[in-house]
Amino acid sequence: DDKKPLGPQVNYTITGIDAGAGIMAGTQRVIKDYGLAKDNWQLQTSSTAAMTTQLGKAIKNKQAIVVTGWTPHWMFTKYNLKFLKDPKLTYGKAENIHTITRVGLKKDKPSANTVLDRFYWTPAQMSQVMLKVNGGMEPRKAAQEWLKEHPAQLKKWTAGVKHVHGDSIHMTYVAWDSEIASTYVVAEALRKVGYKPNLQAMEMQPLWASIATSKADAMTCAWLPNTSGRYFHMYRSKVVDLGVNLKGAQVGLAVPTYMKNINSIEDLKK
Ligand code: PBE
């Protein structure tokens, strides 16, 4: 209902995801910076799966809902959503996703390091893999299929790389849809040059610690400069940043486009 104030319609609640996510810390800052705490706005912790389920239900009933949203993610492909303007830039400007390795990987596993260093794709390409997985396909199968459909991309990452013979490569990741997509795709590219990838999902803090302590070789999950910034600053002297693997990610608050009067975070105070 567009005439009623938004707050009571959604119980002054922003539907969030898992507590460790950078977007949750960013949203707590938003609540502070925009003075939303005065109206008792609160951030609900859940999981990506629970959040997208609630979002789907609200959209089906054309109800108001405010969620923590980000792209690339299939929620923006599946639903008509818009980011709320963030005039204070509390979430920062555009984000890029970086590939991070342990110290010494380049020396120990140069072929793997080259493939990981070259790994770069677009938000549209990442979304294609996410949609396959969201449609029920096993991530490894989705990655294999996507690489078959994009031979030029695979060639760019692997051309001229010296093949190995079943050497191990240990990748860690957080089981967010975007990171499942990138991790499995780069793992399949590593398999093409002879590696046996071993993939392990974990929470954000142990993820960074696994690379910093050389328990794992590499990860593709660093949303910088903001979303994973806290961990990057904590561990930057103990890891190697191979640079951007995807340009133009974004995080913020999102609402369905039928919420015509709500266009800025400032509008939550109306
Ligand atoms: N995300 C997806 C993560 C990074 C990737 C936006 C949910 C976060 O830390 O918030």
List strands and helices in order, with pairings:
Elements: H1 6-9, E1 13-15, H2 22-33, E2 42-44, H3 48-60, E3 67-71, H4 75-78, E4 81-83, E5 95-102, H5 105-108, H6 110-118, H7 123-134, H8 139-149, H9 151-158, E6 168-173, H10 177-192, E7 196-201, H11 204-212, E8 218-224, H12 229-235, E9 239-256
Parallel strand pairs: 1-2, 6-7
Antiparallel strand pairs: 3-9, 4-9, 5-8, 5-9
Helix pairs in contact: 7-8, 7-10, 8-10
Question: Overview of this structure, please?
Answer:
It is a single chain. The protein has 270 residues and is of the alpha/beta class. The protein folds into 2 domains: 6-93 and 251-269, Glycine betaine-binding periplasmic protein, domain 2 (D-Maltodextrin-Binding Protein, domain 2, 3-Layer(aba) Sandwich); 95-249, Dipeptide-binding Protein, Domain 3 (Dipeptide-binding Protein, domain 3, Roll), CATH 3.10.105. The protein is built from 12 helices and 9 strands. It has helices at residues 6-9, 22-33, 48-60, 75-78, 105-108, 110-118, 123-134, 139-149, 151-158, 177-192, 204-212, 229-235, and strands at 13-15, 42-44, 67-71, 81-83, 95-102, 168-173, 196-201, 218-224, 239-256. Strands 3, 4, 5, 8 and 9 form a 5-stranded antiparallel β-sheet that branches. The chain has a two-stranded parallel ribbon with strand order 1-2. Strands 6-7 form a two-stranded parallel sheet. Strand 1, helix 2 and strand 2 (42-44) form a beta-alpha-beta unit. Helix 7 packs across helix 8 (139-149), helix 7 (123-134) crosses helix 10 (177-192) and helix 8 (139-149) packs across helix 10. It is elongated. It starts with 5 loop residues before the first helix and ends in a 14-residue tail after the last strand. The model has no long low-confidence stretch (mean pLDDT 96). Bound molecules: 1,1-dimethyl-prolinium.
